């Protein structure tokens, strides 16, 4: 992920710029909407910029010499050993662990080290002539160095939306005053004490200039441009109110981590009954306890986020909140789709009449125990849709936390790698592409103030990065609560447990579910394992080679003792263990880091429910009431634009799992036969999922290799 802002400043004194801005704002404040069309406003002079300031995202590419032929330290000549030792001595001076920046996170202490900057880009190896004659990496028909895909214009969707909804802007009485506020941000950048940098939240222009009102129809919440190839909508775009969609989202979640669990015993804080259960037509003649005993009932409970949600009340998020909702789902006796039974928007119901009365009529309640009731499809239609929105917004935010927490969990691993594994080691050519951009992205997204250019590699306070600084304006999370939630989630990961795919034939608790895409589509682990085993067999002859590889052992020890990666082996003595560990490393850096574009789907996937008032089970609501708990237009477009940073791939197979830069392995032609088999198997798996999706009501792409990035570069 790289952010580009280009332009040329004009020098002007602070007093003159401020005077122009004040005059401009005074003009605006003295005029009503009716006069806007007949009067001319002179823009402040300091906005006469000689070049535009386009903003784009995407990783660039560069060229470096090809790797040396791989060898193990114990098998190398003495001169080569000395060369490796010198390289790693320098690496240790330039790369170090820093656990002091944010409590609970280990970060790179010098992100401008050569190892980091060299692996922030898509790195082609060798010269063009060498690659043309010797490189055999398959590009899957997608040019990963295409300049058109190198920096994606994240604002591309804005003008098309404005054109479609022009009257929403023309009739917005505050748009010119909002424009003056945006000018103020620009003024501060032109007149600050740092003339070489430009600080700007990417979403500032949108949040400031877009109408801050709620949508008045569903189409106003559609921020996707019409270019379906570039901006594909969700497969269920036209079915957002279909109850079966709630069940489908639990089986095909927006992150690789399904929260669907068997419902085996009743919960005191979620008193669902047979009456609730039978409210869904498919269960009118069914029995809840019987269905539970038969393994047909399932639950999704966002209680893990309760404390973080209730302690988070952002003041600049236009009223966004998050609720730790609970959803109950079941499969009918005859089988079929997972059905939605009931939703409770929070973790607690009123405990007595007094609590119910104050909550019901005045929405007064203990902020630490927000109250709600169980709703079913049998309740008022729009109240039910609002209850579903509490569940989908929690689902969306949980997925974003999952995604960023993998960045935090994995972030220290490349530090240990750069410090202990030299260029001549066989792991370097195999793994560097899978580490691409991770450290720099973590810095920009979490720990760096948003400014251009990057200033001296300094770390901020952890709450003002590209992501953490924007989240409290686009969601129901404050920056502090979001970071706290992300760090908690990262601390729960285990390297082995959480990189072991669910084998359905070993999990009978899900037998009632016929199609579970997050698990059923995930065929990548054995393919990665075969590739890793074939590759490493070229350089390790037996277990002794592994046990005697001191560089490998040092990597393991630093990953455990310095990086603190939970579950990572502290030593590797067997070849099979090495294959397993490297397989899991690649799996973590690709599959476990995946994120669906659900947060861009503002109709359901926004990162906030825009009301403190949860749905009641005895009220009659309207479509406008449902629209009112969706984001206002400026926050909706802001989130859509911002989410593209993390979910947008210019094309399928663009720097995806299975892809390596041209020339990556041309230092050893023996690798290519194994690489070819690896890439072919991934393409076949992808084709098989495409065929499955044609048979499904709604397709699911998260577990398609073509949609999974080769590293956490986004």
UniProtKB/TrEMBL annotation:
Q: Which residues form the Lipoxygenase domain?
A: 268-714
Any one Gene Ontology MF annotation carried by this entry is: oxidoreductase activity, acting on single donors with incorporation of molecular oxygen, incorporation of two atoms of oxygen
Output compositional bias ranges, type Acidic residues: 138-149
Q: Which UniProt keywords apply?
A: Metal-binding, Oxidoreductase
The domain of life is Bacteria
Pfam annotation, one family? Lipoxygenase
Q: Which PANTHER family match?
A: LIPOXYGENASE
Q: What is this protein called?
A: Lipoxygenase domain-containing protein
For biological process, the GO terms are:
lipid oxidation
Region Disordered: list its residue ranges. 130-149
- Which SUPFAM superfamilies does the UniProt entry name for this protein? Lipoxigenase
């Amino acid at each position: 992920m790289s952010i580009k802002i280009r332009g040329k400043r004009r020098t002007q004194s602070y007093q003159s710029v401020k005077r122009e801005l004040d005059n401009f704002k005074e003009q605006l404040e003295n005029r009503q909407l009716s006069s806007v069309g007949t009067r001319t406003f002179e823009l402040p002079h300091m906005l006469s910029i000689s070049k535009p300031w386009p903003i784009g995202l995407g990783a660039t590419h560069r060229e470096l010499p090809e790797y040396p032929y791989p060898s193990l330290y114990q098998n190398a000549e003495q001169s080569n050993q000395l060369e490796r030792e010198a390289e790693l001595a320098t690496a240790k001076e330039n790369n170090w662990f820093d656990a002091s920046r944010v409590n609970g996170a280990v970060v790179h202490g010098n992100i401008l080290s050569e190892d980091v900057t060299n692996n922030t880009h898509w790195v082609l190896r060798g010269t063009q002539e060498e690659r043309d004659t010797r490189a055999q990496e398959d590009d899957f028909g997608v040019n990963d160095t295409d300049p058109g895909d190198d920096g994606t214009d994240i604002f591309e969707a804005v003008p098309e939306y404005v054109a479609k909804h022009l009257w929403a802007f023309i009739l917005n009485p505050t748009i010119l005053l909002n424009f003056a506020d945006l000018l103020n941000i620009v003024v501060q950048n032109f007149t600050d004490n740092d003339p070489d940098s430009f600080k700007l939240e990417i979403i500032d222009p949108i949040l400031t200039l877009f109408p801050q009102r709620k949508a008045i129809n569903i189409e106003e919440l559609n921020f996707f441009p019409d270019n379906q190839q570039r901006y594909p909508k969700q497969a269920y775009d036209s079915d957002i109110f279909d109850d079966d969609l709630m069940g489908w989202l639990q089986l095909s979640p927006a992150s690789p981590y399904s929260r669907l669990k068997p419902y085996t015993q009743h919960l005191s804080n979620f008193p669902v009954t047979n009456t609730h259960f039978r409210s869904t037509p498919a269960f009118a003649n069914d029995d809840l306890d019987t269905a539970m005993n038969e393994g047909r009932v399932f639950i999704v409970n966002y209680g893990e986020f309760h404390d973080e949600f209730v302690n988070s009340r952002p003041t600049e998020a236009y009223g966004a909140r998050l609720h730790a909702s609970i959803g109950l789902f079941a499969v009918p006796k005859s089988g079929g789709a997972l059905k939605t039974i009931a939703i409770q928007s929070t973790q607690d119901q009123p405990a007595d009449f007094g609590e119910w009365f104050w909550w019901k009529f005045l929405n007064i309640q203990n902020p630490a125990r927000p109250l709600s009731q169980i709703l079913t499809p049998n309740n008022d239609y729009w109240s039910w849709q609002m209850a579903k929105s509490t569940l989908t917004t929690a689902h969306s935010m949980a997925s974003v936390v999952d995604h960023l927490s993998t960045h935090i969990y994995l972030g220290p691993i490349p530090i240990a790698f750069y410090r202990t594994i030299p260029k001549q080691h066989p792991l370097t050519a195999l793994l560097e592409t899978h580490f691409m951009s991770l450290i720099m992205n973590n810095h920009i997204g979490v720990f760096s103030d948003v400014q251009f250019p990057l200033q001296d590699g300094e770390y901020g306070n952890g709450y003002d990065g590209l992501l953490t600084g924007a989240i409290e304006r686009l969601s129901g999370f404050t920056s502090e609560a979001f970071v706290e939630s992300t760090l908690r989630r990262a601390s729960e990961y285990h390297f082995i447990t959480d990189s072991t795919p669910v084998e359905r034939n070993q999990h009978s608790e899900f037998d009632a579910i016929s199609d579970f895409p997050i698990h059923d589509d995930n065929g990548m682990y054995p393919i990665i394992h075969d590739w890793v085993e074939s590759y490493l067999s070229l350089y390790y002859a037996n277990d002794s080679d592994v046990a005697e590889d001191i560089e490998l052992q040092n990597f393991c020890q630093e990953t455990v003792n310095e990086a603190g990666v939970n579950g990572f082996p502290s030593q590797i003595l067997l070849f099979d263990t090495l294959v397993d560990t490297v397989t899991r490393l690649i799996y973590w850096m690709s599959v476990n880091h995946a994120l669906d574009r659900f947060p861009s789907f503002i109709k359901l996937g926004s990162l906030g429910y825009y009301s403190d008032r949860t749905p009641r089970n005895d009220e009659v609501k309207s479509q406008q009431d449902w629209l009112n708990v969706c984001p206002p237009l400026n926050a909706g477009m802001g989130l859509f634009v911002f989410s593209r940073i993390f979910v947008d791939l210019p094309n399928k197979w663009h720097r995806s799992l299975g892809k390596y830069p041209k020339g990556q392995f041309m230092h050893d032609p023996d690798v290519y036969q194994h690489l070819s088999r690896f890439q072919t198997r991934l393409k076949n798996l992808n084709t098989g999922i495409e065929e499955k999706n044609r048979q499904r009501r709604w397709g699911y792409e998260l577990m398609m290799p073509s949609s999974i990035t080769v590293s956490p570069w986004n």
